[in-house]
Amino acid sequence: MNPSADLPTPVWREELESEYAALAARLEPLVPCLEIPLHLPWIDAINKLKKQRGAVIMAHSYQSPEIFHGVADVTGDSLGLAKAAAECEAGLIVLCGVHFMAETAKILAPEKTVLIPDLDAGCSLAASITVDDVRALRAEYPQVPVVSYANTSAAVKAESDAICTSANAVQVVESMGARRVIFLPDEFLGRHVARQTGVEIILWHGRCEVHERFTAQEVRHVRKQFGTKVVAHPECSPEVLAEADFVGSTTAMGKWLAREKPAKVAMITECSMADNLRAQFPAIQFIKPCNLCPHMQRITLQNIYASLRDLKHAIEIPADVIAGARRALERMLAVGRREPV
């Protein structure tokens, strides 16, 4: 069922062409040109409604270009969006991403209303581990600290000693001051961390359904066929990472492109991120061995508008879970404050 079937379709007005000329030019190389006139009325309606509501729209880097460039006030990785939620003055936030990201924003900004346009926008990593799993691991490995990746539910975060991102996982693991650390839930990211530290890593076997599909053979083919540099996210398999010129987080990939300025690059990560970076780096040719996140694709202009119009779907987290999860997140943030700039 179409969740926005009851919405009146915004009407095309000739003046939209001039009002959004700069945006249309930005979107033209990123989306099929015939789609732009279909997007602009929704973009216009959302931008007007968010002003009426006093809302801020935040979009993850994996969101499609019409959302990322068209309606988002803040863009970035999951932790960056959560920090922005805590720091912004708005009391109403629409989080265009998956469910754990909206939860993290609510954890850091519990006094604010955080909406997600589609409650079913999930994550295979977050779904791979439960609170009972964490408790069972603690019973099996007493006194061993638990570091959980940001791609987990609020409840799992609350059962953890610290949270990490793909950018700071090594630093957070080493900050625990332990010989062994339980690392949840991404097996591939955990293996990547284990190669960079002397800490023994106890792994869970969760995987990202987007990144695990890339193969080393695909990477070798892309490099041979197009003569391209290869940048990979650490949620990919060790075999894929071994083929890459650079391995890094969502934010680190963008910084690497700005620093290295390759003529061609293959982004071994979610498709929409490459689309959005193309607008930032027009001189770079992006080769796309492409996997889309089906959960990110659940967020659309239509359900963003519905979320703002009806103030749905609000993220609700019990106070005790927020307290536990915030403690784990604050431990990660404290590590970041100790790191040299």
Task: Describe the overall structure.
With 341 residues, the chain is α/β, with parallel strands linked by helices. It folds into three domains: 15-121 and 296-310, NadA-like (Rossmann fold, 3-Layer(aba) Sandwich); 125-207 and 318-338, Rossmann fold (3-Layer(aba) Sandwich), CATH 3.40.50.10800; 211-287, NadA-like (Rossmann fold). It is 46% helix and 14% strand. Helix 3 packs parallel to helix 16 (301-310) and helix 5 (78-87) packs parallel to helix 6.
List the helices and strands and how they pair.
Layout: H1 15-19, H2 21-27, H3 36-53, E1 55-60, H4 65-68, E2 74-76, H5 78-87, E3 92-96, H6 99-108, E4 113-115, H7 124-127, H8 131-140, E5 146-149, H9 154-158, E6 162-164, H10 169-175, E7 180-184, H11 187-194, E8 200-203, H12 216-226, E9 229-232, H13 238-243, E10 246-247, H14 250-260, E11 264-268, H15 271-280, E12 285-287, H16 301-310, H17 319-338
Parallel strand pairs: 1-2, 1-3, 3-4, 5-6, 5-7, 7-8, 9-10, 9-11, 11-12
Helix pairs in contact: 3-16, 5-6
